Amino acid sequence: MLIVVIVIGLLYALPNLFGEDPAVQITGARGVAASEQTLIQVQKTLQEEKITAKSVALEEGAILARFDSTDTQLRAREALMGVMGDKYVVALNLAPATPRWLAAIHAEPMKLGLDLRGGVHFLMEVDMDTALGKLQEQNIDSLRSDLREKGIPYTTVRKENNYGLSITFRDAKARDEAIAYLSKRHPDLVISSQGSNQLRAVMSDARLSEAREYAVQQNINILRNRVNQLGVAEPVVQRQGADRIVVELPGIQDTARAKEILGATATLEFRLVNTNVDQAAAASGRVPGDSEVKQTREGQPVVLYKRVILTGDHITDSTSSQDEYNQPQVNISLDSAGGNIMSNFTKDNIGKPMATLFVEYKDSGKKDANGRAVSGETGRGD
């Protein structure tokens, strides 16, 4: 019995002896999945560039091309990046060289962390000042809108310390009326009188804590989605302290690519679809001056008006759910100003399609005359 256990143990330890192959991994970006057609395109590109691969296979929605040397791996990466475009992430990786007969019995090499395998360790800090500053701006817009709606006159609105604000009124009567009205409308604000004709509003401790927690959790979710594009085995994305996030990518070779993907910035725009332009004109790029062509996730051209209805700056929260037809949907919460903008726009444009445009800014790898990085913009509509 002991001999059987030892033999089985040695058998499942064998994959650790075969090492790893230099590889290039191609994964879909922003919801685009690699397919058989993508596999054919990769094989054709390698053949045209006279690059020999040990194997090229479609595995779990990603394409993995294995090579004999790192030099060949780097040549393949450069060739594929020029062909695949922004729809796919082309990254260097190391793939286990386990023989098929061992893989068939689920024998895999031991997963090694950064201490044994090497890789990349990122420590990121969430910019809380910017996040809470945006919330402060939203509170200012919201209170201004409420006061105008109620017809309470005021003279000035100023930012205060600790992401608060102060509003000056003509007299104490208007100030007291505003405090009574706004306190009911904004339970997450602590509103009090200040001086003879001013009020001061600050976010409650609970609201500040909630905003900080949301900012960190949102960034963790974004980073996890981006790490998935790199295809790293057993990555670590976790919170450290109040406002920091640790990202560990064991075995990653392409550190510059990892930094680019993790550090990309993005925003959302809501725009009206120009239905007056036919598909043929859209495909050829012949559109009016007030419009531009963007592509859907499937690569279909859509003509959007350049005027932005609303940006993601007005989004205060978002959740995923399912609609009445059991289809996935995203629910967003807007601040007061954003809610008014969206309400007024949709009221005047009932029945007209609206698009959500995802705009991402990436490091293009180029520098300007002053040596600063030049960002490239990519946009996709849904």
From TrEMBL:
Keywords, in A-Z order: Cell inner membrane, Cell membrane, Membrane, Protein transport, Translocation, Transmembrane, Transmembrane helix, Transport
Sequence ranges assigned to domain SecD export protein N-terminal TM in this UniProt record: 1-92
One GO BP annotation of this record: protein transport
PANTHER family: PROTEIN TRANSLOCASE SUBUNIT SECD, PROTEIN-EXPORT MEMBRANE PROTEIN SEC
Classification via Pfam families: Sec_GG, SecD-TM1, SecD_1st, SecDF_P1_head
Presence of the UniProt keyword Nucleus in the record: no
Protein name, entry field: Protein-export protein
Domain of life: Bacteria
Membrane-spanning segments: none
UniProt organism field: Escherichia coli
Domain annotation Protein translocase subunit SecDF P1: ranges: 216-274
Residue stretches making up the SecDF P1 head subdomain domain: 295-358
A single Gene Ontology CC term: plasma membrane
Gene: secD_2
